[in-house]
From TrEMBL:
Residues annotated as domain RNase L inhibitor RLI-like possible metal-binding: 46-80
Biased segments, Acidic residues type: 287-296
Residues that bind S-adenosyl-L-methionine: 62, 110, 133, 148
Family (UniProt): Belongs to the TDD superfamily. TSR3 family.
Name of encoding gene: SMKI15G1640
A single cellular component GO annotation: cytoplasm
Reactions mediated catalytically: N(1)-methylpseudouridine(1191) in yeast 18S rRNA + S-adenosyl-L-methionine = N(1)-methyl-N(3)-[(3S)-3-amino-3-carboxypropyl]pseudouridine(1191) in yeast 18S rRNA + S-methyl-5'-thioadenosine + H(+); an N(1)-methylpseudouridine in rRNA + S-adenosyl-L-methionine = N(1)-methyl-N(3)-[(3S)-3-amino-3-carboxypropyl]pseudouridine in rRNA + S-methyl-5'-thioadenosine + H(+)
Record bears the keyword Nucleus: yes
EC number: 2.5.1.157
Lineage of the organism: Eukaryota, Fungi, Dikarya, Ascomycota, Saccharomycotina
Protein known as: 18S rRNA aminocarboxypropyltransferase
Entry keyword Cytoplasm: yes
Length: 312
């Protein structure tokens, strides 16, 4: 059972839920907080906060992990936050000019599921400085390679990195095995954003980056097309060759395919013979699994996305 302050539903019997040790989840929450308060856990240099809607699996949730580490504070619906609120409801994007607000008041996120954003009462949370993040790619195990959809720790780290506090970004991410990968994956882009000033300049930099990605994608596509055409030519030659080979050798060797089998054969880009039927069944399988991945918010397999967030 999650312990977010903003969980939507009440326990079925109306009584508070009890943990395995017989204490209410509220008592356990407090005990957990005290455990971290009393230990000499790292104190983060600025305030970190989140509205937690308990949508996610606590074992995979980066916000919950930060909470367990005593690094982030949970906010209630109705509470506002003075610092930067990194949120899907943001209007402008995080920019280096936000440094002062971050250093004075910290940063916060909305811990919820991407699939359930419509359940989040954005009008009752947030603050004066609500921000989107510009294009960056997730490195976490759940959404690896996916642009824009960062998890909570990545979102906070991205905010710190863009305003120039790489030290805070690294410190936060260091608690996650994959964490430093986020800074490596986005190194070039983060450096570009860091050189901007206001939100407009970050948006321009983002736009240029996306155009560059789009151009590279188009180039790759036309290169692949050219290679395909080259291979097709090869196939045609070989297709014609079957008959002449046969006629040259004086007929069937006994190993050549029947007419029906010939229709079944295609060649891949390396010239290997493959069966169309198997391609078709693989295609429909991959289409199905793509659908499944789209349905699953937390797909485990690393996948790639193009500049517009489409699955490649
Ligand atoms: C939707 S939650 C998902 C959290 C995930 N379950 C986890 O384990 O951290 C991620 C939160 O990070 C922030 N975030 C991530 N990417 C963002 C972006 N591109 N723009 C604005 N906020 C973003 C938002 O606060 C968002 O609600």
């Amino acid at each position: 059972m999650g312990k977010g302050k903003n969980k939507a539903h009440e326990p079925k019997n109306g009584r508070p839920q009890r943990g395995a040790n017989g204490h209410s989840s509220r008592q356990n929450h407090r005990r957990m907080e005290m455990k971290y308060e009393n230990s000499d856990k790292v104190k983060f240099p600025v305030k970190l906060a989140m509205w937690d809607f308990d949508h996610c699996d606590p074992k995979r949730c980066s916000g919950k992990k930060l909470e367990r580490l005593g690094l982030i504070k949970s906010l209630r619906v109705g509470q506002k936050f003075q610092g930067i609120v990194v949120s899907p409801n943001g209007k402008g994007v995080v920019c280096p000019d936000d440094l002062e607000v971050v250093e004075q008041h910290g940063a916060s996120v909305v811990e919820c599921s991407w699939a359930r954003l419509e359940e989040v009462p954005f009008n009752k949370i947030g603050g004066k400085h609500e921000r989107l993040l510009p294009y960056l790619v997730a490195a976490n195990q759940v959404n690896y390679g996916r642009p824009w959809r960062l998890n909570c720790v990545e979102a906070l780290a991205a905010c710190f990195a863009i305003v120039g506090r790489m030290d805070w970004a690294s410190e936060l991410l260091s608690h996650f095995s994959w964490g430093m990968g986020f800074l490596e994956l986005n190194k070039e882009l983060l450096e570009i954003y860091q050189q901007c000033t206001d939100a407009d300049s970050v948006k321009r930099a983002e736009e240029e980056w996306l155009q560059k990605l789009e151009k590279e994608t188009q180039e790759r596509k036309s290169q692949a097309k050219e290679e395909d055409i080259w291979m097709m030519g090869n196939i045609n030659r070989r297709g014609g060759g079957w008959q002449s080979d046969e006629s040259e050798s004086g007929g069937s060797s006994g190993e050549s395919e029947s007419e029906g089998d010939k229709q079944c054969v295609e060649y891949d880009s390396l010239g290997n013979a493959i069966c169309i039927d198997s391609i078709n069944s693989r295609k429909s399988l991959s289409e199905e699994s793509e659908d499944e991945e789209n349905d699953l918010e937390e797909n485990k397999e690393p996948v790639s996305y193009d500049s517009l967030g489409n699955l490649i």
